[in-house]
Design brief:
The complex is a heterodimer of chains A (116) and B (285). Chain A has 116 residues and is α+β, with helices and mostly antiparallel strands. Chain A has 3 helices and 6 strands. In chain A, the strands form 3 sheets. In chain A, strands 1-4 form a two-stranded antiparallel sheet. A two-stranded antiparallel sheet of chain A has the order 2-3. A two-stranded antiparallel sheet of chain A has the order 5-6. With 285 residues, chain B is an all-alpha fold. The chains are: A alpha+beta (116), B mainly alpha (285).
Chain lengths: 116, 285
């Protein structure tokens, strides 16, 4: 478990403890995975620090983050799922939109694994 | 559906779980225009678990109220009757089937994520179409596949044959059920919904969600659930036990009159809506 400042948080990190605001309202439960939106929510509630799952070795932080799938994997999985339905233009549009959503999740520049 | 098999299930319908009395009472009160927030609060506070859960939910960031809500009446006034019923029904249905015997190939957690995702997607589609009772759509999405849970609990051997066939041939659960049972989770779900005295609209949606254009006067609602189901499968939100996308019911799609350009924002909203709500309505193994 490591204590991080709010501006060190990245989507995909996992909360090691539940986070409450000053009025003791539960914001996010322990085990929740951070997203851009959740980090934004923490900021708006004036949270400065949160505890994240992972460890610190010297200046290097290892946090638990989901494995990002690359574009090709996402496309292949979707193609297989939609195999029997793609002759319909509406289904093709749905697949395209879903593909963009799934890629946004994994290719998000803020979701990288670079050490902080 | 083959009649002898259906009869077998009907014979066992008495063994199916019942909804908690509190939830039925709450449903009655919500449907009664004469009932007040105080009447509803009285019923909820009788059930301590429900009361505690409701307060936890309204005080969560999902609703984002700036002040702490400490009374049930306060929660009802802020959220409204329909939303309260929806929340309580959701969590009660989850509880009802939690801690049941597990079938290894079928993840109940993934199943509930799929149900919750469809509920969120249906509500978002309902808002887009200016449907006036979006809370009903939420509940419909949540319960549309409930027949699968009944099969898992009451017909464990056949259910495990079905999941094996789904995996082996990579087909829809629906098709595997037709091959093995001669009927599907839609038929089984209808039996449970009837036993629970759910409204006719909900029964119809459960029965027709794979062929929404056959749902008669509830074709619009069934079409919404059908589309939300497709969204969730495309977005990998949970899993209904298979890994295929059902074919689009074209008549149903055309009747909804959704423009193709609107699909992208609707799908994006379904994803973010699910991410938000799933933190607070979670399946507990």
């Amino acid at each position: 478990m490591i204590l991080l400042k709010i501006d060190q948080l990245k989507p995909g990190m996992i909360l090691a403890e539940s986070v409450y605001n000053q009025q003791e309202l539960l914001l996010f439960e322990k085990g929740a995975s951070l997203t851009k939106k959740r980090i934004w929510t923490l900021k708006t509630w004036g949270i400065n620090h949160v505890r994240i799952k992972g460890e610190r070795k010297g200046n290097h932080l290892t946090t638990i983050e989901p494995e990002g799938k690359n574009k090709q994997t996402i496309e292949n999985e979707l193609q297989e799922k939609f195999a029997d339905a793609l002759d319909d233009p509406v289904m093709a549009a749905i697949m395209k939109a879903a593909s963009r959503q799934l890629q946004e999740n994994s290719n998000d520049p803020e979701n990288g694994n670079e050490p902080t | 559906m083959s009649q002898p098999d259906l009869n077998r299930i009907i014979a066992r319908v008495e063994d199916l779980p019942t909804l908690p009395r509190t939830v039925l009472r709450i449903t009655e009160l919500v449907n009664d225009p004469k009932s007040s927030a105080r009447d509803l609060a009285r019923v909820i506070t009788d059930d301590q678990v429900l009361a505690a859960r409701l307060l936890k939910l309204v005080n969560s960031s999902f609703y984002g109220f700036p002040q702490r809500i400490s009374t049930i009446t306060g929660a009802i006034v802020l959220l409204g009757f329909d939303a309260i019923r929806n929340l309580l029904l959701t969590t009660s249905v989850f509880d009802l089937f939690a801690n049941r015997k597990r079938i290894s190939e079928f993840s109940q957690e993934q199943f509930w994520d799929h149900s919750l995702g469809c509920a969120v997607g249906a509500k978002i589609l309902g808002n887009h179409l200016r449907y006036d009772k979006v809370e009903e759509l939420f509940v419909s999405g949540l319960l549309h596949d409930i027949g699968k849970i009944v099969e898992m609990i009451f017909m464990p051997e056949q259910f495990s044959k079905i999941t094996r066939l789904v995996q082996k041939e990579n087909i829809l659960m629906f098709s595997a059920e037709e091959q093995i049972l001669g009927y599907t989770h839609a038929d089984v779900g209808r039996l449970l919904a009837e036993k629970w005295n759910l409204p006719p609209k909900l029964i119809s949606v459960i029965l027709h969600h794979h062929r929404p254009s056959t749902a008669g006067r509830f074709a619009q609602e069934a079409a919404i659930i059908h589309l939300a189901d497709i969204f969730c499968r495309a977005l990998n939100i949970g899993s209904g036990g298979d890994n295929k996308i059902p074919q689009l019911d074209k008549i149903a799609w055309e009747s909804l009159k959704i423009k193709t350009e609107a699909l992208e924002p609707l799908i994006a909203k379904t994803k973010s809506g699910f991410d938000d709500i799933s933190l607070f309505i979670t399946y507990t193994p």
